[in-house]
Amino acid sequence: MRLYHGTDVNSLVDLLNGHDLDAEVAAGCHRNGAPGFYLAVLRSDAEYFALRREGNIVTIDIEDEAVAELTRLGAMLQAIPMSPMSANFDGDELFIPVHLFRSFNEMREQGRIHAFL
């Protein structure tokens, strides 16, 4: 599954260099909703978040079996929440809660998840 994460430049560089997802960093960076890692199904939806953070978009490829495993563990494919200040989103998002960061990071180490521009 190909997904997109709109983020600031520092986080983008960290993701591209293989740094692990970190719960403390996620809590400090997140503005709305529960802390975690949010991945848009559509690149156009991720653009909003990249612009909001004056950053760019990271493409994340996740093997279908890895998505299924993360979902069984508590990740959620859901509509991107709307607010009066947000854009109109056309797609959904995959929400990875912080308690799954270790699983996500392990999947990256195993080559089941790849990040690139």
Structure description:
It is a single chain. With 117 residues, the protein is of the alpha+beta class. The chain has one domain. It has helices spanning 9-16, 23-29, 43-52, 64-73, 101-109, and strands at 2-7, 36-40, 56-62, 76-79, 92-97, 113-116. The model has no long low-confidence stretch (mean pLDDT 93).
Write the topology of this structure.
Blueprint: E1 2-7, H1 9-16, H2 23-29, E2 36-40, H3 43-52, E3 56-62, H4 64-73, E4 76-79, E5 92-97, H5 101-109, E6 113-116
Antiparallel strand pairs: 1-3, 2-5, 3-6, 4-5
Can you give the mean pLDDT? 93
Biggest pleated sheet: 3 strands, antiparallel
Q: What are the secondary-structure elements, in order, as H or E?
A: EHHEHEHEEHE
DSSP strand count: 6
Question: Could you say which overall geometry the principal axes of the C-alpha atoms support?
Answer: globular
What strand line-up does the widest sheet have? 1-3-6
Class computed from helices, strands and strand pairing: alpha+beta
Number of discrete domains = 1
Rounded to an integer, what's the Rg over CA atoms?
13 Å
What oligomeric assembly is this protein in? single chain
The parts where pLDDT drops under 50 for at least 5 residues are: none
Number of helices: 5
Entry keywords:
single chain; 117 residues; alpha+beta; 3-stranded antiparallel beta sheet; globular
Briefly characterize the structure:
This protein has helices at residues 9-16, 23-29, 43-52, 64-73, 101-109; strands at 2-7, 36-40, 56-62, 76-79, 92-97, 113-116. By secondary structure, it is α+β, with helices and mostly antiparallel strands. The model has no long low-confidence stretch (mean pLDDT 93).
